[in-house]
Protein backbone atom coordinates (compact mmCIF):
# COMPACT_ATOMS: atom_id res chain seq x y z
CA UNK A 1 0.00 0.00 0.00
CA UNK A 2 2.84 2.40 0.79
CA UNK A 3 4.39 1.66 -2.60
CA UNK A 4 1.10 2.55 -4.31
CA UNK A 5 0.71 5.76 -2.30
CA UNK A 6 4.27 6.78 -3.14
CA UNK A 7 4.11 6.20 -6.87
CA UNK A 8 0.50 6.32 -8.14
CA UNK A 9 -1.56 9.49 -8.58
CA UNK A 10 -4.10 10.20 -5.88
CA UNK A 11 -7.27 9.73 -7.94
CA UNK A 12 -8.98 7.08 -5.78
CA UNK A 13 -10.02 6.82 -2.13
CA UNK A 14 -8.68 3.33 -1.70
CA UNK A 15 -9.89 1.04 1.05
CA UNK A 16 -6.83 0.02 3.14
CA UNK A 17 -6.78 -3.62 2.10
CA UNK A 18 -4.60 -5.17 -0.60
CA UNK A 19 -6.46 -7.88 -2.52
CA UNK A 20 -4.32 -10.62 -4.01
CA UNK A 21 -6.64 -13.44 -5.09
CA UNK A 22 -10.24 -14.14 -6.04
CA UNK A 23 -12.39 -17.19 -6.65
CA UNK A 24 -16.08 -17.07 -7.45
CA UNK A 25 -17.73 -14.51 -5.16
CA UNK A 26 -14.80 -14.42 -2.71
CA UNK A 27 -11.57 -12.42 -2.59
CA UNK A 28 -8.58 -12.63 -0.25
CA UNK A 29 -6.24 -9.91 0.98
CA UNK A 30 -2.48 -10.05 1.45
CA UNK A 31 -2.94 -11.18 5.04
CA UNK A 32 -5.07 -14.14 3.98
CA UNK A 33 -8.40 -12.73 5.12
CA UNK A 34 -11.44 -13.69 3.06
CA UNK A 35 -14.21 -11.32 1.93
CA UNK A 36 -17.58 -11.93 0.32
CA UNK A 37 -17.50 -9.64 -2.72
CA UNK A 38 -20.86 -7.97 -3.39
CA UNK A 39 -19.25 -5.23 -5.49
CA UNK A 40 -17.64 -7.45 -8.16
CA UNK A 41 -15.20 -4.82 -9.38
CA UNK A 42 -18.14 -2.35 -9.60
CA UNK A 43 -20.54 -4.56 -11.59
CA UNK A 44 -17.73 -6.05 -13.69
CA UNK A 45 -17.10 -9.67 -12.63
CA UNK A 46 -20.57 -11.01 -13.41
CA UNK A 47 -19.22 -14.57 -13.55
CA UNK A 48 -17.20 -14.01 -10.40
CA UNK A 49 -13.44 -14.09 -10.03
CA UNK A 50 -11.20 -16.49 -11.96
CA UNK A 51 -14.07 -18.16 -13.77
CA UNK A 52 -12.51 -21.20 -15.48
CA UNK A 53 -14.10 -20.57 -18.89
CA UNK A 54 -12.73 -17.02 -19.05
CA UNK A 55 -9.34 -17.98 -17.59
CA UNK A 56 -8.92 -20.83 -20.08
CA UNK A 57 -9.95 -18.66 -23.04
CA UNK A 58 -7.51 -15.87 -22.14
CA UNK A 59 -4.64 -18.31 -21.51
CA UNK A 60 -5.23 -20.08 -24.80
CA UNK A 61 -5.51 -16.86 -26.79
CA UNK A 62 -2.43 -15.33 -25.13
CA UNK A 63 -0.42 -18.24 -26.49
CA UNK A 64 -1.72 -17.73 -30.02
CA UNK A 65 -2.21 -14.04 -30.82
CA UNK A 66 -2.58 -11.09 -28.45
CA UNK A 67 -2.56 -8.04 -30.70
CA UNK A 68 -2.15 -7.12 -34.37
CA UNK A 69 -4.27 -3.91 -34.62
CA UNK A 70 -7.44 -3.27 -36.57
CA UNK A 71 -5.54 -2.98 -39.83
CA UNK A 72 -6.14 -6.72 -40.15
CA UNK A 73 -9.04 -9.16 -39.75
CA UNK A 74 -9.13 -11.45 -36.70
CA UNK A 75 -11.58 -14.25 -36.04
CA UNK A 76 -12.16 -13.60 -32.30
CA UNK A 77 -13.41 -10.09 -33.06
CA UNK A 78 -15.73 -11.33 -35.79
CA UNK A 79 -17.19 -14.02 -33.52
CA UNK A 80 -17.92 -11.60 -30.66
CA UNK A 81 -19.51 -9.09 -33.04
CA UNK A 82 -21.71 -11.86 -34.41
CA UNK A 83 -22.93 -12.83 -30.93
CA UNK A 84 -23.68 -9.24 -29.91
CA UNK A 85 -25.50 -8.48 -33.14
CA UNK A 86 -27.54 -11.69 -33.02
CA UNK A 87 -28.57 -11.07 -29.41
CA UNK A 88 -29.44 -7.37 -29.73
CA UNK A 89 -31.22 -4.80 -31.89
CA UNK A 90 -27.94 -3.84 -33.56
CA UNK A 91 -26.39 -4.58 -36.94
CA UNK A 92 -22.82 -3.40 -36.34
CA UNK A 93 -20.34 -3.19 -33.46
CA UNK A 94 -17.32 -1.02 -32.68
CA UNK A 95 -14.84 -2.23 -30.05
CA UNK A 96 -12.81 -0.16 -27.62
CA UNK A 97 -11.39 -0.52 -24.11
CA UNK A 98 -13.79 1.02 -21.58
CA UNK A 99 -17.25 2.40 -20.97
CA UNK A 100 -16.05 5.97 -21.34
CA UNK A 101 -14.57 5.13 -24.74
CA UNK A 102 -17.78 3.39 -25.79
CA UNK A 103 -19.81 6.44 -24.82
CA UNK A 104 -17.32 8.75 -26.53
CA UNK A 105 -17.77 6.69 -29.70
CA UNK A 106 -21.55 6.90 -29.36
CA UNK A 107 -21.44 10.68 -29.03
CA UNK A 108 -19.23 10.98 -32.10
CA UNK A 109 -21.40 8.62 -34.13
CA UNK A 110 -24.57 10.50 -33.18
CA UNK A 111 -23.06 13.82 -34.22
CA UNK A 112 -21.63 12.39 -37.44
CA UNK A 113 -24.95 10.80 -38.39
CA UNK A 114 -26.84 13.99 -37.62
CA UNK A 115 -24.38 16.13 -39.56
CA UNK A 116 -24.74 13.97 -42.65
CA UNK A 117 -28.46 13.23 -42.45
CA UNK A 118 -30.17 15.95 -40.43
CA UNK A 119 -28.00 19.01 -41.05
CA UNK A 120 -24.86 20.59 -39.56
CA UNK A 121 -26.82 22.45 -36.89
CA UNK A 122 -28.04 19.18 -35.35
CA UNK A 123 -25.35 18.39 -32.77
CA UNK A 124 -26.93 18.71 -29.33
CA UNK A 125 -27.49 15.73 -27.03
CA UNK A 126 -29.96 15.67 -24.16
CA UNK A 127 -28.76 13.68 -21.14
CA UNK A 128 -30.16 13.08 -17.67
CA UNK A 129 -29.48 14.72 -14.34
CA UNK A 130 -27.70 12.34 -11.94
CA UNK A 131 -26.45 10.25 -14.88
CA UNK A 132 -22.91 8.95 -15.27
CA UNK A 133 -21.28 8.31 -18.65
CA UNK A 134 -17.52 8.37 -18.04
CA UNK A 135 -14.42 10.47 -17.32
CA UNK A 136 -13.31 11.79 -20.70
CA UNK A 137 -14.07 15.43 -21.52
CA UNK A 138 -17.08 14.51 -23.66
CA UNK A 139 -18.43 11.96 -21.20
CA UNK A 140 -18.08 14.10 -18.08
CA UNK A 141 -19.93 16.78 -20.04
CA UNK A 142 -22.64 14.22 -20.84
CA UNK A 143 -22.74 13.22 -17.15
CA UNK A 144 -25.43 15.15 -15.32
CA UNK A 145 -23.55 15.57 -12.04
CA UNK A 146 -21.56 18.71 -11.30
CA UNK A 147 -19.22 16.94 -8.86
CA UNK A 148 -17.62 15.08 -11.79
CA UNK A 149 -17.28 18.28 -13.83
CA UNK A 150 -15.81 20.58 -11.18
CA UNK A 151 -12.39 21.92 -12.13
CA UNK A 152 -12.60 20.84 -15.77
CA UNK A 153 -14.44 23.77 -17.29
CA UNK A 154 -15.04 24.92 -19.92
CA UNK A 155 -17.02 21.81 -20.79
CA UNK A 156 -17.87 20.86 -24.35
CA UNK A 157 -20.72 22.62 -26.08
CA UNK A 158 -23.82 20.73 -27.11
CA UNK A 159 -25.25 19.03 -24.02
CA UNK A 160 -28.45 19.76 -22.09
CA UNK A 161 -29.65 18.09 -18.88
CA UNK A 162 -33.16 17.13 -17.84
CA UNK A 163 -34.66 15.08 -14.99
CA UNK A 164 -34.58 11.31 -15.42
CA UNK A 165 -37.89 9.44 -15.80
CA UNK A 166 -39.67 12.56 -17.06
CA UNK A 167 -40.87 12.31 -20.68
CA UNK A 168 -42.51 15.72 -20.45
CA UNK A 169 -39.15 17.31 -19.63
CA UNK A 170 -37.62 15.57 -22.63
CA UNK A 171 -40.33 16.83 -24.94
CA UNK A 172 -39.86 20.38 -23.67
CA UNK A 173 -36.04 20.27 -23.98
CA UNK A 174 -35.87 19.36 -27.68
CA UNK A 175 -34.69 22.23 -29.88
CA UNK A 176 -33.86 22.57 -33.59
CA UNK A 177 -30.26 21.65 -32.60
CA UNK A 178 -31.12 18.36 -30.86
CA UNK A 179 -29.73 15.24 -32.52
CA UNK A 180 -30.37 12.68 -29.80
CA UNK A 181 -31.03 11.55 -26.24
CA UNK A 182 -28.52 9.60 -24.14
CA UNK A 183 -29.64 7.77 -21.00
CA UNK A 184 -29.07 4.77 -18.76
CA UNK A 185 -31.99 2.31 -18.51
CA UNK A 186 -31.30 2.30 -14.77
CA UNK A 187 -29.10 5.00 -13.25
CA UNK A 188 -26.25 3.21 -11.48
CA UNK A 189 -23.96 5.88 -10.03
CA UNK A 190 -27.07 7.99 -9.49
CA UNK A 191 -28.25 5.48 -6.87
CA UNK A 192 -29.82 2.56 -8.78
CA UNK A 193 -32.75 4.68 -9.89
CA UNK A 194 -35.33 2.63 -11.79
CA UNK A 195 -37.70 4.50 -14.10
CA UNK A 196 -41.38 3.80 -14.76
CA UNK A 197 -42.09 0.69 -16.79
CA UNK A 198 -43.18 2.73 -19.83
CA UNK A 199 -40.41 5.32 -19.65
CA UNK A 200 -38.11 3.97 -22.37
CA UNK A 201 -41.11 3.37 -24.64
CA UNK A 202 -42.16 6.98 -24.22
CA UNK A 203 -38.60 8.17 -24.92
CA UNK A 204 -38.58 6.04 -28.08
CA UNK A 205 -41.85 7.54 -29.24
CA UNK A 206 -40.59 11.09 -28.66
CA UNK A 207 -37.34 10.34 -30.49
CA UNK A 208 -39.22 8.88 -33.45
CA UNK A 209 -41.61 11.80 -33.65
CA UNK A 210 -38.79 14.37 -33.60
CA UNK A 211 -36.46 12.24 -35.76
CA UNK A 212 -33.67 12.18 -33.19
CA UNK A 213 -31.50 9.28 -31.96
CA UNK A 214 -32.03 7.19 -28.83
CA UNK A 215 -28.75 6.11 -27.18
CA UNK A 216 -28.79 3.72 -24.21
CA UNK A 217 -25.75 3.49 -21.95
CA UNK A 218 -25.73 -0.13 -20.75
CA UNK A 219 -22.18 -0.02 -19.41
CA UNK A 220 -23.44 -1.03 -15.96
CA UNK A 221 -26.82 -2.61 -16.73
CA UNK A 222 -25.68 -4.81 -19.62
CA UNK A 223 -24.48 -8.44 -19.79
CA UNK A 224 -27.10 -9.91 -17.49
CA UNK A 225 -26.91 -7.54 -14.53
CA UNK A 226 -30.69 -6.93 -14.47
CA UNK A 227 -31.78 -10.45 -15.42
CA UNK A 228 -31.80 -9.87 -19.17
CA UNK A 229 -28.73 -9.63 -21.36
CA UNK A 230 -29.54 -5.94 -21.93
CA UNK A 231 -31.83 -3.88 -19.70
CA UNK A 232 -33.51 -2.13 -22.65
CA UNK A 233 -35.16 -5.48 -23.45
CA UNK A 234 -37.63 -4.92 -20.60
CA UNK A 235 -39.09 -1.93 -22.47
CA UNK A 236 -40.12 -3.74 -25.64
CA UNK A 237 -38.46 -1.06 -27.78
CA UNK A 238 -35.12 -0.82 -29.53
CA UNK A 239 -32.56 2.00 -29.28
CA UNK A 240 -30.47 3.30 -32.19
CA UNK A 241 -27.14 3.06 -30.35
CA UNK A 242 -26.05 1.11 -27.26
CA UNK A 243 -22.84 1.15 -25.26
CA UNK A 244 -21.34 -1.72 -23.25
CA UNK A 245 -18.26 -2.34 -21.08
CA UNK A 246 -17.75 -3.40 -17.43
CA UNK A 247 -19.03 -7.03 -17.37
CA UNK A 248 -18.49 -7.55 -21.09
CA UNK A 249 -15.07 -9.16 -20.50
CA UNK A 250 -15.67 -10.27 -16.88
CA UNK A 251 -12.73 -8.15 -15.74
CA UNK A 252 -10.72 -7.87 -18.94
CA UNK A 253 -10.81 -4.19 -20.05
CA UNK A 254 -13.09 -3.94 -23.06
CA UNK A 255 -15.92 -1.78 -24.36
CA UNK A 256 -18.30 -1.84 -27.30
CA UNK A 257 -20.62 0.54 -29.12
CA UNK A 258 -23.43 -1.04 -31.14
CA UNK A 259 -25.73 0.58 -33.69
CA UNK A 260 -28.20 -0.13 -36.47
CA UNK A 261 -26.97 -0.23 -40.06
CA UNK A 262 -28.55 3.11 -40.84
CA UNK A 263 -26.68 4.87 -38.05
CA UNK A 264 -23.42 2.90 -38.35
CA UNK A 265 -23.03 3.94 -41.98
CA UNK A 266 -22.15 7.45 -40.79
CA UNK A 267 -18.71 6.15 -39.75
CA UNK A 268 -16.23 5.54 -42.55
CA UNK A 269 -12.51 4.63 -42.34
CA UNK A 270 -10.64 7.32 -40.44
CA UNK A 271 -13.66 8.73 -38.59
CA UNK A 272 -12.98 6.81 -35.39
CA UNK A 273 -10.51 4.20 -34.17
CA UNK A 274 -8.96 2.41 -31.20
CA UNK A 275 -5.50 0.84 -31.32
CA UNK A 276 -6.28 -1.85 -28.77
CA UNK A 277 -10.03 -2.03 -29.36
CA UNK A 278 -11.24 -5.54 -30.11
CA UNK A 279 -7.81 -7.14 -29.81
CA UNK A 280 -7.85 -10.97 -29.83
CA UNK A 281 -7.10 -11.29 -26.12
CA UNK A 282 -10.02 -9.08 -25.10
CA UNK A 283 -12.31 -10.81 -27.56
CA UNK A 284 -11.43 -14.22 -26.15
CA UNK A 285 -12.52 -13.01 -22.71
CA UNK A 286 -15.74 -11.55 -24.10
CA UNK A 287 -16.66 -14.64 -26.10
CA UNK A 288 -16.14 -16.92 -23.10
CA UNK A 289 -18.15 -14.56 -20.89
CA UNK A 290 -21.09 -14.30 -23.28
CA UNK A 291 -21.21 -17.99 -24.09
CA UNK A 292 -21.18 -18.88 -20.39
CA UNK A 293 -23.87 -16.38 -19.43
CA UNK A 294 -26.10 -17.41 -22.31
CA UNK A 295 -25.40 -21.13 -22.10
CA UNK A 296 -25.81 -21.69 -18.35
CA UNK A 297 -29.00 -19.68 -17.66
CA UNK A 298 -27.06 -17.11 -15.64
CA UNK A 299 -29.82 -14.63 -16.54
CA UNK A 300 -32.46 -16.75 -14.83
CA UNK A 301 -30.25 -17.19 -11.77
CA UNK A 302 -29.73 -13.44 -11.60
CA UNK A 303 -33.48 -12.85 -11.49
CA UNK A 304 -34.16 -15.57 -8.94
CA UNK A 305 -31.29 -14.70 -6.60
CA UNK A 306 -31.97 -10.98 -6.97
CA UNK A 307 -35.60 -11.44 -5.91
CA UNK A 308 -34.46 -13.51 -2.91
CA UNK A 309 -31.93 -10.82 -1.95
CA UNK A 310 -34.45 -7.98 -2.19
CA UNK A 311 -36.93 -9.97 -0.10
CA UNK A 312 -34.37 -10.27 2.70
CA UNK A 313 -33.39 -6.61 2.41
CA UNK A 314 -37.05 -5.68 2.83
CA UNK A 315 -36.99 -7.57 6.13
CA UNK A 316 -33.97 -5.52 7.20
CA UNK A 317 -35.87 -2.38 6.19
CA UNK A 318 -38.71 -3.37 8.53
CA UNK A 319 -36.16 -3.88 11.30
CA UNK A 320 -33.86 -0.89 10.78
CA UNK A 321 -35.36 2.58 10.41
CA UNK A 322 -32.17 3.79 8.73
CA UNK A 323 -33.24 1.94 5.55
CA UNK A 324 -35.91 3.95 3.74
CA UNK A 325 -36.14 2.07 0.44
CA UNK A 326 -35.06 -1.15 -1.24
CA UNK A 327 -35.00 -1.13 -5.03
CA UNK A 328 -33.43 -3.03 -7.86
CA UNK A 329 -33.77 -5.31 -10.83
CA UNK A 330 -31.99 -8.63 -11.11
CA UNK A 331 -28.76 -8.28 -9.13
CA UNK A 332 -28.51 -4.50 -9.42
CA UNK A 333 -29.84 -3.55 -5.99
CA UNK A 334 -29.74 -0.59 -3.63
CA UNK A 335 -30.79 0.39 -0.12
CA UNK A 336 -31.55 4.07 0.45
CA UNK A 337 -30.56 5.32 3.91
CA UNK A 338 -31.52 8.21 6.16
CA UNK A 339 -27.87 9.01 6.86
CA UNK A 340 -24.29 8.58 5.69
CA UNK A 341 -23.66 5.16 4.18
CA UNK A 342 -19.85 5.23 4.46
CA UNK A 343 -19.75 3.93 8.06
CA UNK A 344 -22.02 1.04 7.07
CA UNK A 345 -19.71 0.17 4.16
CA UNK A 346 -16.72 0.19 6.55
CA UNK A 347 -18.55 -1.89 9.14
CA UNK A 348 -19.47 -4.47 6.50
CA UNK A 349 -15.86 -4.62 5.31
CA UNK A 350 -14.65 -5.19 8.86
CA UNK A 351 -17.03 -8.14 9.05
CA UNK A 352 -15.94 -9.56 5.67
CA UNK A 353 -18.42 -8.10 3.15
CA UNK A 354 -17.47 -5.73 0.32
CA UNK A 355 -20.14 -3.26 -0.86
CA UNK A 356 -20.09 0.44 -1.70
CA UNK A 357 -22.08 3.63 -1.34
CA UNK A 358 -23.25 6.02 -4.07
CA UNK A 359 -24.48 9.55 -3.54
CA UNK A 360 -23.58 9.42 0.15
CA UNK A 361 -26.80 7.72 1.27
CA UNK A 362 -27.34 4.72 -1.00
CA UNK A 363 -25.79 1.30 -0.43
CA UNK A 364 -25.20 -0.45 -3.76
CA UNK A 365 -25.05 -4.21 -4.23
CA UNK A 366 -23.79 -5.52 -7.58
CA UNK A 367 -22.45 -9.00 -6.75
CA UNK A 368 -21.41 -11.68 -9.22
CA UNK A 369 -24.44 -13.19 -10.92
CA UNK A 370 -23.26 -16.63 -9.78
CA UNK A 371 -23.87 -15.99 -6.07
CA UNK A 372 -25.97 -18.50 -4.15
CA UNK A 373 -28.79 -17.99 -1.67
CA UNK A 374 -26.33 -18.98 1.04
CA UNK A 375 -24.10 -16.08 -0.07
CA UNK A 376 -27.10 -13.77 0.18
CA UNK A 377 -27.91 -15.05 3.67
CA UNK A 378 -24.33 -14.36 4.77
CA UNK A 379 -24.33 -10.86 3.25
CA UNK A 380 -27.66 -9.97 4.86
CA UNK A 381 -26.46 -11.23 8.24
CA UNK A 382 -23.34 -9.05 8.00
CA UNK A 383 -25.34 -6.01 6.90
CA UNK A 384 -27.78 -6.58 9.76
CA UNK A 385 -24.89 -6.57 12.26
CA UNK A 386 -23.38 -3.47 10.67
CA UNK A 387 -26.69 -1.62 10.99
CA UNK A 388 -27.10 -2.79 14.59
CA UNK A 389 -23.69 -1.41 15.48
CA UNK A 390 -24.03 2.00 13.86
In short:
With 390 residues, the chain is of the alpha/beta class.
Order of neighbouring strands in the sheet with most strands: 4-10-9-8-7-5-6
| Class from helix and strand fractions | alpha/beta
The total beta strand count reads 15
CATH homologous superfamily grouping of the largest domain: Type I PLP-dependent aspartate aminotransferase-like (Major domain)
Query: What distance lies between the first and last C-alpha atoms, to the nearest angstrom?
Result: 28 Å
**How many DSSP H or I helices?**
14
Q: Could you characterize the architecture of this molecule?
A:
- The structure is a single chain.
- With 390 residues, the chain is an alpha/beta fold.
- The protein folds into two domains: 2-51 and 297-388, Aspartate Aminotransferase, domain 1 (Alpha-Beta Complex), CATH 3.90.1150; 53-295, Type I PLP-dependent aspartate aminotransferase-like (Major domain) (Aspartate Aminotransferase, domain 2, 3-Layer(aba) Sandwich).
- Helices cover 38% and strands 18% of the residues.
- It has helices at 2-7, 40-43, 52-62, 75-86, 99-117, 137-142, 146-149, 167-173, 199-210, 261-264, 280-295, 298-319, 342-350, 373-388, and strands at residues 19-23, 26-29, 34-37, 92-96, 124-128, 159-162, 178-183, 213-217, 241-244, 255-259, 323-329, 332-337, 353-354, 356-358, 362-365.
- Strand 1 and strand 2 form a beta hairpin.
- Helix 3 packs antiparallel against helix 11 and helix 13 (342-350) crosses helix 14.
- It is globular, with a radius of gyration of 21 Å.
- The protein starts with a helix and ends with a helix.
Amino acid sequence: MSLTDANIMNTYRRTPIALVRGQGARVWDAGGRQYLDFLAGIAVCNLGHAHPAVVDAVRRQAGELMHVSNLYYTNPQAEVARILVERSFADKAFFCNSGAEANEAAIKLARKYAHENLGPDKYELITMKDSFHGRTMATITATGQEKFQFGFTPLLDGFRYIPFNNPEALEAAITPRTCGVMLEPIQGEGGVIIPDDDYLARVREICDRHKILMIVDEVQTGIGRTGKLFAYEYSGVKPDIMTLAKALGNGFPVGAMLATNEIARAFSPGNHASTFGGNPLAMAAVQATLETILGQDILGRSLETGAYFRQHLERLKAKHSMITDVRGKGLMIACALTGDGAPIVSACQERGLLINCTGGKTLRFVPPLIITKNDVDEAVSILDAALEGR
